[in-house]
Write a structure and sequence with these properties.
The protein is mostly helical. It has eleven helices and no strands. α4 packs across α6.
Amino acid sequence: MTAIAHFIAITCYIGAAALAATPFARPVGAPVRGVVAILAVGVLAHATALLAYVQRVGQLPLTGLGPSLSFAGFVLAGTLLIVEIVARDVSLTLIAAPLAAIPTICANLIGLVPGNEPAGARGAWLFAHIVLSFIGIAAFATAAAAGCMYLVERRELESRRFGAIFRFFPPLATLDRVNHVAAIAGWLVLTLGVVLAITYALTYPERAEAPVPKIDWTEVRKWEFLPPDFAKFPLLKLAYQCQEAGGSATCTLNAADEVAVEAFLEGRIGYLSIYEIVQETLTQISSRTPRTVGDILEIDRESRVKARELTTARAAGTVTA
């Protein structure tokens, strides 16, 4: 049962990646529903295999090289499935699905032999550490896949030789959002897993109570959100104004901000000069409506040139901000 379910899962992962690659072979849209369905069947089969393992050996697949590899592949595939459903784009499956299949294949080649279960392995602390660590690694793998695709696609755009194969990639904004969310989630979850591991190790063999009081969500009666203080955060107000103005204003703001922040980190300008440089760049670069990717890249280049001129002029003077 375990071997058959693993075989079905591996087949589905590879099949999902192959189906996601069909737009590269012929000019058709990405079969999102088909890829998600195959991936979901694979995750379900993988879960069935792990449950059969638990019933057979009487312990979770968290000890032993083979079971741990299989569990890692399952977590990665499950994370990928959630991301694809939310993003409604299956390009990440090209990279992440084979990554889920590889440890699963290795697990079956090595053999699902349970390791020696350490004392306390059934405890909530150790279990949470292992599960959170796997989830964090899976999230980082998703972020890495999205980041690689983002860099390749952006390089093609900037070089103005955007091949037909890249037209089937998701928009840069989608890849950036997936990378950002997955990286933050991965960092938070993996950090929590490491903290649990450190606490477990320091208190072994005794089990310590959590160092923080238990959260009682029924006690939370009120959530209070305050408007941002634009006097303290003038760049935030400037960003809102650019968004409301539309056109190329936000493109200019982003370009000028990157140039100014880089100059600040290099120690050439003061912190408060960042806002002044961005504001002056927006004043001197007229906003217009871009029609093509080339227009956006030209506006970005022009804004950076102007921001560098302002930064150089400010750095040449005495800046105390």
